[in-house]
Amino acid sequence: MIDQSSINQILAAQKQNLLLKDSGLQREALQNLPDLTSYALIVSGIRRCGKSTLLFQLLKERYPDALYLNFEDPRLYEFERKDFIKLDKAINETKTKVLLFDEIQIIPEWERYARQKLDEGFKLVITGSNASLLSKELGTKLTGRHITKELFPFSYREFNSFNKLTPSTDSLLQYLHTGGFPEYVKQQANEILNYVFEDILIRDIAVRYGIRDVKSLQRLALYLISNVGKLVTATRLKSLFEVGSTNTITEYLSHLEDTYLLHLVPKFSYSLRKQMVNPRKVYAIDTGMVSVNSGSFTEDSGRLLENLVYLHLRRKYKDIYYFSEKGECDFIVFEKDTLLEAIQVCFDLNSDNIDRELDGLWEALAFFNSRTGKLITLGQKDRFEKEGRIIEVIPSYEFLQ
């Protein structure tokens, strides 16, 4: 429990800190945030990707009189469900009708309060870093009353804009190894991404879900982030880490996905059951996170580039698969059951790999009866035609624009 005067003081202090805060690079996502009246706007994404800054930019550009409250403030650790009554009193004193709540999902029954404020005619913007908690709680109390947008670390365009770079092989390589976490891009201190990695594992997963075997969770996460672009199965991971059961590994993987740290891409199949049992490909939320935290001592720029292309696609689409029959195609992208893209990624297309890379893409195009595909490289450009089908070879710095 927290007293009324403390809530008022925290609100005033946070508002003052916002006014002193540098608004930073305007995020591309800002222009895509709808101006809602009877719906809650939910902005979800991994820790430290810039959600709080986005809220500040939203406040500055659209809602200068909004009330802002970050529930991860240490002074609010004792905030309980009953304290929402005191928060109401503070809100009523401001006369505002716009509420910006950062990480409110850590408070029990927050969704009931959110529904109440919507019913009272408030505009409501909420951020959160756990997709599962948000979707579960929104689904019970805010069904049909919310719209969710995702925020990722800096895109390649944002990275170039922040660093005043132009699209090129050089800037692409910088982005490939630095990634897009805003604070890391600014300061280049490895400790920033070390801390984010550990903070997610400990605070967002181990503490929240009562996981006692923290060491196994850490070893699993380190292994996965060191093997982006590779196939994994829960059964194989169980044997590698000698964890009690496959279900435990499955739960760990679910938590790692919910916090946005890792993404698991299924093999394409028209059978949902086969999608569930086939190996999945693992990708990280950020290539800088891989570079800093990876336990691998050999640099594999090809898999980092593949990860980068995945993230570019994931910013726009959710139905992404890999294709594997005789050969393999890295990405098959759907939207509303319609095939949009068939994409292969190859860091350097050469005489040793050209047949393998093209054959996997040709096979995917034939399977889906699609006419065009893309092969993304570091900096090469070319065009191949076969049996009425076309593969465009595109430099990554052009594709990521």
Topology record:
Elements: H1 4-20, E1 40-44, H2 51-61, E2 67-70, H3 84-94, E3 98-102, H4 110-119, E4 123-128, H5 131-141, E5 146-150, H6 156-163, H7 169-178, H8 182-187, H9 190-209, H10 214-225, E6 231-232, H11 234-241, H12 246-258, E7 262-265, H13 272-277, E8 280-284, H14 287-293, H15 301-314, E9 319-324, E10 328-335, E11 338-345, H16 354-367, E12 372-377, E13 382-386, E14 389-395, H17 396-399
Parallel strand pairs: 1-4, 1-5, 2-3, 3-4, 11-12, 12-14
Antiparallel strand pairs: 6-8, 7-8, 9-10, 10-11, 13-14
Helix pairs in contact: 1-3, 4-5, 7-14, 9-10, 9-14, 11-12
Task: Outline the structure in words.
The protein has 401 residues and is an alpha/beta fold. 45% of the residues lie in helices and 19% in strands. The protein contains 17 helices and 14 strands. The strands form three sheets. Strands 9-10-11-12-14-13 form a six-stranded mixed β-sheet. β13 (382-386) and β14 form a beta hairpin. The mean pLDDT is 93.
Record keyword descriptors for this entry.
401 residues, single chain, five-stranded parallel sheet, alpha/beta
Describe the sheet with the most strands: 6 strands, mixed
Low-pLDDT residue intervals, each spanning 5 or more residues: none
* Terminal CA distance: 49 Å
Number of strands: 14
- Biggest sheet strand order reads 9-10-11-12-14-13
